[in-house]
UniProtKB/TrEMBL annotation:
One of its GO terms (molecular function) is pyruvate, phosphate dikinase activity. It catalyses: pyruvate + phosphate + ATP = phosphoenolpyruvate + AMP + diphosphate + H(+). It comes from Candidatus Methylocalor cossyra. It is an enzyme of class 2 (transferase). Belongs to the PEP-utilizing enzyme family. Residues 292-326 form a coiled coil. It comes from the Bacteria. Residues 421-502 form the PEP-utilising enzyme mobile domain. This is Pyruvate, phosphate dikinase. Residues 56-290 form the Pyruvate phosphate dikinase AMP/ATP-binding domain. The lineage of its organism: Bacteria, Pseudomonadati, Pseudomonadota, Gammaproteobacteria, Methylococcales. PANTHER family: PHOSPHOENOLPYRUVATE DIKINASE-RELATED, PYRUVATE, PHOSPHATE DIKINASE 1, CHLOROPLASTIC. Catalyzes the reversible phosphorylation of pyruvate and phosphate. Its cofactor is Mg(2+). Keywords: ATP-binding, Coiled coil, Kinase, Magnesium, Metal-binding, Nucleotide-binding, Pyruvate, Transferase.
Amino acid sequence: MSKKYVYAFTEGDGRDKQRLGGKGANLCEMTRIGLNVPPGFVISTEACLEYLAQKSLPAGLLEEVRHHIGKLEARTGKRFGGEANPLLVSVRSGSALSMPGMMDTILNLGLNRDTLRGLIRQTGNERFAYDAYRRFIQLFGKVALGVREERFDAEFEAVKRRAGVKHDVGLDAGHLKAISDRFLKVVLETTGKPFPEDVYEQLEIAIRAVFDSWMGKRAVDYRREFHITPDLANGTAVNVVTMVFGNLGDDSATGVGFTRNPATGENELYGEYLVNAQGEDVVAGIRTPKPVAELAHEMPDLYRQLVELRNKLESHYREVQDFEYTIEKGVLYCLQTRNGKMNAQARVRSSVDMHREGLITREEALLRVDPAHLEQLLHPRLDPSHGQKPLATGLPASPGAASGRCVFDADQAELLGRDGEKVILVREETKPEDIHGFFAAQGILTSRGGKTSHAAVVARGMGKPCVAGAEGIRVDSRAQLARVGELTLREGDLITIDGSSGAVFLGEIPTVAPVFSEELKTLLAWADQVARLKVLANADTPDMAKLAMDYGAAGIGLCRTERMFNASERLPVVVEMILAPTREARQAALDKLLPMQRQDFLELFRLVAPHPVTVRLLDPPMHEFLPSERQLLEEIEGLKAYRLAVKGRSAALAALHALDPVHPTGNELSEDLVNSVIAKKEQMLRKVRELHEVNPMLGHRGVRLGITYPEIYQMQIRAVLEAAAEGLKEGLPVHPELMVPQVITAQELSWVKANVDQIHREVEERYGVRLSVRFGSMVETVRACCRASELAALAEFFSFGTNDLTQAVFSFSREDAENKFLPLYTDTGILQDNPFEVLDVNGVGALMQMTVEQGRAANPGLEVGICGEQGGHPSSIRFCHAIGLDYVSCSPLRVPIARLAAAQANLLAPR
């Protein structure tokens, strides 16, 4: 038997979208449930793939098509190519996943000079017939014959000018006949061939054109942008449908409807229509359509039927539907339906409402919302109607939008921020020492760096928008300016950044504030009841902790103590500690830091209790708290130049004072003070050079630093435990946890735990309380994964630091990879995703699974979580659920996303 490629609407399986495409499957399904669908048939996606592979239509396909055209003729009483009662069809694309407008459609196919005369006799409406003919020539010419649309438009406009009308509705039959003749001439001049008169030739050409459109640029770009892979949708079907006409007079119409409002989710029939028009007129904006509510007055019986159609569609599909319809001479036809594309607000509201209405279960409501789309609700966003073109574009590193004055250094950002000025911190790249500028800024813009660069990671943690790697902007921090082409941005110039798209705009663009609706609260409460994974937050400050708790976090899974060190009032003390020549001098500086850190932790405990707060001991290398060698050399050079200038001015003033003792001597800095500052800077420079490392990410950091300088970790441990003791005295149910970074061996953990146990006893004795503190290890090195059973004997919990673990597994320098080759790798399919955004389950994930299994074999009560960037990504959360993790910890603004993703992971898990 020959292979079957064509399925009538009466025989196709409405569930088989991979074979029939979404549009074709739904046409078959609507036919099956008794809706009034024009008869037709579907050519399968398999035929498309064979055509694209062979560059020719599959053998036997055209014979099948002719057979099914014969069935349409028998069903309708019309004849394809017949002059007496012509059958016209539409030829429409349709892939398994909806790709609106990305592929091609041809209407009114089957018209030629003979069938045109028949259509005029059949309808008694010459204007209608010529309107259909000119539409067909133009659409077929553009889609199937490659004629540029501008050629048709020019001829159309020429006739309209001669007729003295602005819109095509003002043209009569004579005008439309003239346009048709002009269009036929354009086709002949462009292609060198007359417009095809044979209707089966027209159909074959149209089928080929629709198949070809699967590989058209806009379709390919759309699939790339929305990650539509071949396993999701491969090839387009072709739907051949009997034409029905909404442009046969005032008792005919065409429209597009949604079963609910796609902008708000409100349970109402929503849409637009046009009387005496074809469907393309509604979507093309040729005429201004009317809101569907007006149909109730214009055609009340048809409106009632439309409401019934709406109810049947939503009840059957149990999903909001986006449908197209035509009214031909008072008869309503449904031409298409598909799941409606809605914004996040509408999706959430309609999910909650549809459950309350009994249409879907609570589990279906939770699965209906894409967790990633919740991000739309949690960040300020630009008003979509602003209409401005971007000045430059970078990577959308942290979502949200913000406007402010350009500032090129963190100190100035902090100064202006304190005065209430809204600023955007603009840097070539950022360092941890810029943290005070982050706190003060509305958003961050860098010309270098990727989506997981320092600026991006910190901005996401703070919930601030960030555009990174905007290479079209050349930042000169020394000159306090940036250049974009011929334009120069100076300090104080107003810009707007959109961290959701990566766009940078000149001036202020209005934003729309985020809304945490009651429906979202309800949906997330349902999610928490279903999820097995707990969702914690990465938070280092009281503001971040409060936001995390407001968004439903079950505690703090990562508090990075170095962020506290970077605060402006503490950094000088940290520098003093680093520069200390002896352990005693270093301890003196740490004694100043102890009460500051203790107060930090106490504030966090007050906000988070009774939930846990997991404190990671100091992780970054010491040089990150010092200025760079280049910066210090420039400062020393400037101070020496100032000293020389002061010397010269002082000598002149001294001579003047000898002549005139009353003359003031000025207020320059004394030479001794300048010398002392130079000496301090030179001491810093020596320390920076001493601390220099070829690869600091793999160097003297984390627990290695804590063992080398034990007094640092001892101060931090004491600060956490004393804060916990003070919290207990206040009546707080505190649950502190201490976590050791960069561990490679059980001996390191044992060394730190001995310090914890000693300080634990001392604090309990001093405060007269009983403290409960949990002790755990970060797992972010490959060796820690391999030694999980030994580490688990000492640790009560593991937390995967997947940012560093990913770097170690891939041997990638994160920022270099993102700036140089990772985009190429993901574009070409060498890697499916950026592993610093989406957890690499085959490499990093395999190590994680091994670690969980070995760790729990040694310690069955071991709690395991993740606190890397990937902890907030929905697909990564599904993997974490699958390998048995207990929690994920993510930035505060991703907590709602993670809560929903955790619920979906449990609902979708194999039983």
